[in-house]
Amino acid sequence: MQVTVVVPTFNEGPNVAELVRRIGDAADGLDVEVLFVDDSRDDTPDVIRRVAASSGIPVRLLHRTEPVGGLSGAVVEGLRAARGEWVVVMDGDLQHPPEMVPVLLETAASTGADVVVASRYVGGGDAAGLDGRWRHLVSTASSLLARSMFPLRLRNVTDPMTGFFAVRTGSIDLAALRPRGFKILLEILARNKVVVVEEPFVFGERFAGQSKATFANGLRYLQQLTALRFGRMSTFALVGAFGAVLNLAIMWGLEQFGVHYMPAAVVSAAITIVTNFLLLEHFVFHDLRSEGRSVWKRAAQSFTFNGIEAAVRLPFLHWLVVLTGMPPVLAQALTLVVAFLLRFVFHAQVVYRPRKDAPDRVSPLTGEPSTTTLDED
Fold first, then answer.
1. What is the pLDDT of residues 154-171, one digit of tens each?
2. CA distance to 39, 273, 276, 277, 302, per residue, from 295 (Å)
3. Which of 8, 25, 243, 259 counts the highest number of beta carbons within 10 A?
4. 3-class DSSP state for residue 67?
């Protein structure tokens, strides 16, 4: 195959037939296949099979019962299963015009690029298909944030948030990708040294269905961005910063109602401990939740440590306020900063400690490798 068009789908059945038809028309003369990587919970897989049976171009379906990594994970699986030297990744809602497929490939051939990005923000591009001013603002701000955090890798990229691009699979290390959320291009560009060029395109209106963009996706994007730039500790810091702000806001609010600063600090600490644990579970250590401990054991360990830490920190807070005359909220902020590293080390090395891999050992009798399972406390 010359090119594989990878289309991640989630409940996009009404768009499938029109998408395949337009890809076939646009790619006339190209050796092309369409690979749907489908995480749908409706009849989309059946629709894809029906379209494949009558299509003039090869159509394949990879249906995932466990959508690991979200949309990004689907794209990575598509890249692994692709038969083409080049892969064009595009959404299944027709906001990415199929007529751009040969344009991206022609640009790749004429420039020698490894990745051709279909950009809404380079000259001639347009993001008109985004729903409303809010999504325009979020998209623009997210792109600026990504380019600011990766000034070298993204210096030739105006639209790192796009899901429409062509990539030569031999130029990237698929094993190095850590797909999460829905911004796989950012992952590819941040983890690989590749030659990138852009091609403008007009982001169109949806053909059918509803947008999958949610506030949770935005949080996952921030997690992805900080993890790519700084690693797991940065995401932990992001959660910690949120918890600190929440802690201070609760404490300040209670003080405004006449509550003494010490009881206010106790209440704010209790609420923050629970909130932080939930955020750590879903955004920082989500990939380590299956390492042998139940959620209740993880919660008990986390709450115990944070309770002890708070019990030690609160007398120190009182000492700072009484002996130095420091404002209580400022003193609380200082104690939270001091506690940050201790909390990170404890959670990484105790609460979410990965199980050790058992080494392969050669049996002295048979010469065959034997595996020993190590139990963990």
1. 778 888 888 899 999 999
2. 26, 15, 14, 10, 10
3. 8
4. coil
